[in-house]
Amino acid sequence: MTAILHTPEVKVRDRVDARVVRRRLGPGHRLRFAFWIGPVLALALWSAGSATGVIKPAVLSAPWDVAVAFEDQWVNHDLLGNILSSLQRVAIGLALGVVAGAVLAVVSGLSRIGESLVDGPIQIKRSIPTLALIPLFIAWFGIGEEMKIITIALISLVPIYIHTHNGLRSIDGRYAELAETIGINHGEFVRHVVLPGALPGFLLGMRFAVTAALLGLVVVEQYNAVAGVGHMITLAEQYGQTDVIVVGLVIYGIFGYCADSAVRLTGRKALAWRQTLDG
Q1: Under the phi-then-psi rule, with left for phi > 0, alpha for psi from -120 to 50, and beta for the rest, what region is 223?
Q2: H helices of the chain, where?
Q3: Domain locations in the chain?
Q4: What gap in Å lies between CA 240 and CA 13, rounded to an integer?
Q5: How far is 252 from 83, CA to CA, in rounded Å?
Q6: What is the mean pLDDT of residues 162-175?
Q7: pLDDT > 70? residue 267
Q8: Burial class for 37, CB neighbours closer than 10 Å (0-12, 13-18, 19+)
Q9: Separation CA 237–CA 244 (nearest Å)
Q10: What predicted TM-score, i.e. pTM, was given to this entire model?
Q11: Do you know which Gene3D superfamilies this protein is assigned to (predicted)?
């Protein structure tokens, strides 16, 4: 079915369209290392402000002080253990949220009955911030790891569901007509057309889910955590260690960038047959 839908003529037309888009955007619309321009500039401004005294140490520690604090946390305070603890929390919660969101999206997107049962509650949940439910989760599940993982899972579920469901519902009707014309049954149509067609929506939902999961991680680690980056930040706040707080924030930022990069790379590999602005 995929081979039929993507004939040589279609591929040639897509390549021509992509060249037209690139020409209109200009030759410099995509720089290989463009992402690092902003962070490097911010680091330079931060360093200059700290060196000249414009940025006071009590407000924001200098980059070199943060580097020293990182080394101290790594050598003397089990920073690696805290990082691994945070990664474990977010990985389990994100995995649960992704699986649940994808399953619910498929049930809702491929069945009118499923949509009537699933979509309404999800849309209601969408309007209620997950973080506002933490007091209830504490009452239901206690203040331990279970509450933290469930919060991360629930906050990750919604973007996966929304974007995957939209992807399933936005499949071009002409594909269904073509499937009927060439005699493809419903199961093959879903497997070879509908699910691959919804993959871009799922991957977009993954990018939002990763960001949401990290947001949830930052918040839940403030609640009775005995290990993790958030636990380290909480202790640093109590002792007024701004440099250690910045170390934690930098680690969270690295988590987010690496996770988003992994999703984007997966998307480029999985959607290599598509010609998009990113490709």
Answers
A1: beta
A2: 2-5, 8-25, 37-52, 63-76, 79-109, 112-126, 134-141, 145-169, 173-182, 186-189, 195-220, 229-238, 242-270
A3: 62-270
A4: 61
A5: 9
A6: 74
A7: yes
A8: exposed
A9: 9
A10: 0.74
A11: MetI-like
